[in-house]
Amino acid sequence: MLSDINYTLNIKDIKSMKAILKIQSVALKAIHDFFEEENFIQLLPVMLSRYTDPLLDGDKKLEPAEINYNGQKLKLTQSMILQKQVAIGLGIERLFVVSPNIRLELPELAKSQNHCFEFTQIDFEIANAQLNDIFKFVERLLRRVRIDVISKAENELKTLNRDLGEWNESFPILTSHDLIVEYGESWKEETKLDYTTPIWIVCHDRNFYDRVDRSTKGMHIENFDLYYPEGFGGAMSGGEREFNYQNLLYRMKEKEINRFEFSEYLLIAEKNGLRPSAGGGLGVERLVRYLSGFRDIGDVQLFKRIPGNTIKL
Ligand code: ASN
User: What is the Å distance from ligand 1's center to 82 Cα?
Assistant: First the structure.
């Protein structure tokens, strides 16, 4: 019986799920079309590697999952940032990957309604780009997705009673410092970020690969998050990248990262194999959640991967 299957999968309403999946298909097609028109090369995802993005984003999670294969310990991808940097260094100047990530978030994060321990991101990187280039590019990309969804998934939006509203031409830019002053340290609680248009939030002390500008007074970190309007929360993160060997070593030390775990990456950097670039990763499930107007990320995954939940299939 279909109703029994729905029960097993925790799908509340198959009609809504089909509408969500149609919206997701239109969004993915718009993203692919846009990247192709903008002369990006699509790389295939990597799922296992010697080391992966250590993340350092403040969310509590377990160590990256590891498997033993042929006498090697390999980690499941948390993000392809390091591979993106190396590919840029090889001269692939504009690239994107539809990249599955495994992040073993602690069960308590289920209540954030914002995290899946397995999800997909559209990870992209542009050689010689700076934050402003990325902002303009993503604003155009998301506008394209929005327009395509409104025109090609009109019926599905109606089924879900979802009105995507209007957006500003360019999205406002705030700093994490502004938000701490306004809301305190817990500014990330998305309900507080209830703007009518997406917003950029810059300068997060996060990862060793984020470029730090020490030329201005204090320390400015050239990275960003993008938040959706209406309190739908985080859309993507990214930044300008550190590519200089000495700076990378310095940042790893600052972040208490064991440099020896990243030996090949650092060797490439030491041989001047990395180049300036910037990019980011757009979470597909979070995009679909926003487009279809659901609050809980689990509601838009056909096969849910919510922290702490028992996997049914
Ligand atoms: N994809 C992100 C980036 O490009 C990294 C991440 O997902 N942690 O910066």
Answer: 9
Residue with tokens 């959706």: 228
Q: Does the pLDDT at position 56 exceed 90?
A: no
Domain ranges for the chain, please list them. 2-300
3-state DSSP assignment of residue 147:
helix
Q: Where are the alpha helices (DSSP H) in 38-175?
A: 81-89, 131-152, 154-159
User: Alpha-carbon distance 159 to 156, whole Å?
Assistant: 5
Q: Which amino acid type is present at position 132?
A: N
What residues are paired with 61 via a beta bridge? 105
Which residue's alpha carbon is nearest to atom 6 within ligand 1?
79
Closest by CA position to 129, among listed 121, 137, 141: 137
Q: Which of 39, 45, 204 is nearest to 131 (CA)?
A: 204
Residue to mutate (ligand 1; options 123, 137, 282, 287; most atoms within 8 A of CB): 123
Give the atom of ligand 1 at the shortest distance from the alpha carbon of 53: 8
Q: State the burial class of residue 236 (Cβ atoms within 10 Å of its Cβ: 0-12, 13-18, 19+).
A: buried
CB-neighbour burial class of residue 156 (10 A; exposed 0-12, middle 13-18, buried 19+): buried
CATH superfamily of 2-300: Bira Bifunctional Protein; Domain 2 (3.30.930.10)
Burial-class residue 82 by CB neighbours within 10 Å (0-12, 13-18, 19+). Answer: buried
- HSE-CB for 26 with a 13 A CA cutoff: 23
Model confidence pLDDT, tens digit, residues 85-143: 999 999 999 999 999 999 999 999 888 899 999 999 999 999 999 999 999 999 999 99
Rounded to two decimals, the pTM is: 0.95
Q: Which of 183, 188, 215 is nearest to 204 (CA)?
A: 188
The count of residues in the chain is 313
